[in-house]
Design goal:
Number of strands: 14
Oligomer: single chain
Strand order of the largest sheet: 5-3-2-6-7
Strand content: 5-15%
Radius of gyration: 28 Å
Shape: globular
Order of helices and strands: EHHHHEHEEEHEHEEEHHEEHHHEEEHH
GO molecular function: phosphotransferase activity, for other substituted phosphate groups
Family: Belongs to the bacterial sugar transferase family.
Domain Bacterial sugar transferase: 309-495
Largest sheet: 5 strands, parallel
Transmembrane segments: 39-62, 74-94, 114-133, 139-159, 315-335
EC number: 2.7.8.-
């Protein structure tokens, strides 16, 4: 943290140009953030290799029954399968901007573009086969195309995980940002973008639009400047991205001139509006007479998508209970051996629209845990409506394992089957903690879930305010694709036993 006490205000330097000449052969070189070049090269190799491997597997599995291209020379067949088809994948992925650095390493857009490219490849192969009257083995081609899509997605996931690990461990392969705006707005954006180091957004400086007076005597995590030419400041601090925060983005003339100034510099310009915790699918830009208006859609809390979510919950929970019944018996036996008493723990929780229900969990504490709670209240290691201790003496050894592995939560599949809970949603809170006031009450607009956004973002390691913020973000930005993403992330969190105690 830095104290902003003394200031040296320099007169602003006027922009040197209002745009740069364009050339079809020249592109702006990025000054600092060059991680994307080797990363894209690795993705190119992975994608080409994945498509070639899928073709190889398809040939090995189905060639005995049908050579794939009837009446075609073997050399031509292998050229198409192992060279032209993988090259076509790479070209179509490139055309769909699946290698654009703006979509790499963050969010679902990268995967959407890969899937869109897969559809385009399938359509192209079908058209070429029809146009050339080529007899194809449907099984061979189908396996090659679908296998390539799955392998490319898997390769992208592995590459993204490696990139995030690199960012978390050594702080490299990210974007160095200069935040422009008032100090409170810049600090809010700083807090947001640094919550997850894997995102790769690293603020390195703040440029104030309201002068130094507002910052005098305050502690700031990065150096604060004012009255400087922004592009010169970016070059001085080694940045590659300018983030215009909050009200600073409301000056269309200044923002337009800043965009002109950055042309040809290789520096990215992003705008962080005052709309917070609202995901992209709910925000649409609708230009009216040259004025770009941000239209914010209502969250999807009803309709066909919600019915599909409910159907998916019921089917998945029913199958889960059926398949996991042997595991349930083994856990029940371990609990009874560890501590005589009931196998399940039932507690009243608050659910959808404030209705209470009794949640199912495997018992992990001694039978007198409730009586012993009063003597442990002062040792609570979290805040808000939850009581958590990393070394809770009320938990017996098998119960500690069940909590670390999240096996104690599996009986909640019964609540999901009965429609009281969902697979994904805000965690249900105890019903005896009083009324839910203020923003917390908004959590009740959806069914509580077995897992949720705050579980995959830190679980018990998060503060109460942070857990509420994540739950509210989920409520406001829910979608089926988001649910599937959280379920996928839950697997990794459970295996790592992160924040479970």
């Amino acid at each position: 943290m830095r104290h902003v006490d003394s200031f040296e205000i320099q007169p602003p330097t006027p922009p040197s140009h209002n745009g740069v000449p364009r050339s079809g052969w020249a592109r702006a070189r990025r000054r600092v953030s060059r991680w994307h070049r080797p990363y894209i090269a690795i993705l190119l190799l992975l994608d080409f290799g994945a498509a070639a491997l899928a073709s190889f597997l398809a040939v090995q599995i189905f060639e005995q029954a049908d050579s794939g291209f009837k009446n075609s020379p073997q050399v031509w067949f292998y050229t198409v399968a192992f060279l032209l088809l993988p090259l076509g994948w790479v070209l179509i992925l490139w055309g769909n901007r699946a290698y654009d650095r703006r979509y790499l390493g963050l969010g679902p857009d990268e995967y959407k573009r890969v899937i869109r490219s897969g559809v385009a490849v399938a359509a192209t192969v079908s058209f070429l086969a029809f146009a050339t009257v080529t007899s194809l083995s449907r099984w061979t081609v189908g396996f090659a195309l679908l296998g390539a899509l799955m392998l490319i997605l898997l390769g992208r996931m592995i590459a993204r995980g490696s990139l995030h690990a690199l960012r978390r461990r050594i702080g490299q392969a990210g974007h160095r940002m200069v935040l422009v705006g008032t100090l409170p707005e810049c600090l809010e954006v700083f807090t947001t973008v640094t919550r997850n180091p894997g995102v790769g957004l690293v603020p390195v400086a703040i440029h104030l639009t309201d002068g130094y007076a507002a910052a005098r005597g305050l502690e700031t995590p990065v150096p604060v400047y004012a009255g400087r030419d922004v592009l010169a400041l970016v070059r001085e601090v080694g940045g590659d991205t300018i983030a215009v925060c909050g009200s600073a983005s409301a000056e269309p003339g200044e923002l337009r001139r800043l965009a002109w100034q950055l042309e040809g510099s290789g520096v990215d310009l992003v705008v962080a509006p005052q709309l917070t915790d609202i995901a992209g699918p709910r925000v649409h830009i609708r230009p009216i007479e040259g004025l770009p208006l941000l239209h914010v859609e209502e969250p999807t809390l009803s309709g066909p998508a919600l019915l599909l979510k409910s159907l998916m919950d019921r089917v998945a929970s029913g199958l889960g209970l059926l398949l996991l019944s042997p595991l349930f018996l083994a856990v029940a036996l371990a609990i009874r051996i560890s501590d005589p008493g009931p196998v399940f723990f039932r507690q009243s929780r608050v659910g959808h629209e404030g209705r209470t229900f009794r949640v199912w969990k495997f018992r992990t504490m001694y039978v007198d845990a409730e009586e012993r709670l009063a003597g442990l209240v002062d040792q609570n290691e979290t805040d808000g409506m939850m009581f958590k201790m990393k070394q809770d003496p009320r938990v017996f050894p098998v119960g500690r394992f069940l909590r670390a592995s999240s096996l104690d939560e599996l009986p909640q599949l019964i609540n999901v089957l009965w429609g009281e809970m969902s697979l994904v949603g805000p965690r249900p809170l105890p019903a005896d903690d009083g009324d839910f006031l203020g923003d917390v009450r908004r959590r009740l607009l959806v069914r509580p879930g077995m897992t949720g956004l705050w579980q995959v973002s830190g679980r018990s390691d998060l503060s109460w305010d942070e857990a509420v913020r994540l739950d509210l973000y989920y409520v406001d930005n829910w979608s089926l694709a988001y649910d599937l993403s959280i379920l996928w992330r839950t697997v990794g969190v459970v295996l790592a036993s992160k924040g479970a105690y």
